[in-house]
Inverse folding.
């Protein structure tokens, strides 16, 4: 069982270092380092990972997040793998290499893409239907920027995108997933044959949670989704433990103190971990699960 681990990162942290150390043996790890970051800071991984040459300036909630994922898919297109797992630099595995491989071997042919069962369809359509500027997606707006943004939204409105009407019904879920070689190949082939689909998502807001989900949910791969009608937690469907409930950050920034709260189930990865996590405690915890 060959697994291609595709990691999106912008900082070199102890969390990223730990994930690469644990996952790189007997797997191929592909690393996308944000274009804004200094590549020299990641040179310690030169003999452990494959660096993606097509580096994207990734911006929160922007189409660049989709472009980054597609750069990774294009990188592995002609390689030999059974599953591609998309991870962030803040993720840690919750199972050993052997256990992860055994899980995918057991569920070979299944797609691990989280689909949220209930969502505000009007708000979701708004993400994609209208042209959203870089300013719209800016985090931590000042008071006056919020005032201007509110005026623009309420009185000037957003311009509609003409290609939106061509899109099938929208679906959403977490950005992170594990997909089979067949599903990844299908995505790339579909986009080559239907370039309008990508254009329909440009200048959207948080469309990384919609782009791949809509594509696969409107294909035969819908029938291969892991526990699609059984689990209500869309992150669990993608094999991720992510705490969106506890706070104070959303999602919660995890530390070694959160390890004992993670259910002993089929979660294979967790995010996102603080770079100050006591990794000695983490290694002991991971060993106890083997």
């Amino acid at each position: 069982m060959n697994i291609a681990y595709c990691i999106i990162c912008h900082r070199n942290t102890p969390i990223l270092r730990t994930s690469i150390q644990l996952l790189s043996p007997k797997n191929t790890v592909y690393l996308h380092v944000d274009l804004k970051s200094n590549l020299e800071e990641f040179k310690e991984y030169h003999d452990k990972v494959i660096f993606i040459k097509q580096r994207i300036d990734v911006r929160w909630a922007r189409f660049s997040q989709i472009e980054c994922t597609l750069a990774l898919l294009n990188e592995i297109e002609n390689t030999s793998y059974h599953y591609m797992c998309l991870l962030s630099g803040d993720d840690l595995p919750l199972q050993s290499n052997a256990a992860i491989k055994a899980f995918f071997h057991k569920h070979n042919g299944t797609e691990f893409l989280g689909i949220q069962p209930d969502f505000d369809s009007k708000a979701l359509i708004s993400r994609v239907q209208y042209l959203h500027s870089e300013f719209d997606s800016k985090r931590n707006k000042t008071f006056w920027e919020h005032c201007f943004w509110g005026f623009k939204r309420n009185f000037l409105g957003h311009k509609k995108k003409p290609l939106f009407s061509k899109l099938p019904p929208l679906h959403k879920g977490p950005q992170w997933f594990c997909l089979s070689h067949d599903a990844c190949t299908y995505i790339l082939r579909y986009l080559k044959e239907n370039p309008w689909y990508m254009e329909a998502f440009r200048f959207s807001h948080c469309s990384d949670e919609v782009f791949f989900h809509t594509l696969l949910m409107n294909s035969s791969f819908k029938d291969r989704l892991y526990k699609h009608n059984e689990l209500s937690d869309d992150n669990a469907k993608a094999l991720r433990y992510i705490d969106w409930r506890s706070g104070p950050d959303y999602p919660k920034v995890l530390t070694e103190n959160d390890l004992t709260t993670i259910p002993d189930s089929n979660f294979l990865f967790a995010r996102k971990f603080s770079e100050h996590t006591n990794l000695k405690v983490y290694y002991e915890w991971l060993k106890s699960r083997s």
Summary: The chain is about 35% helix and 10% strand.
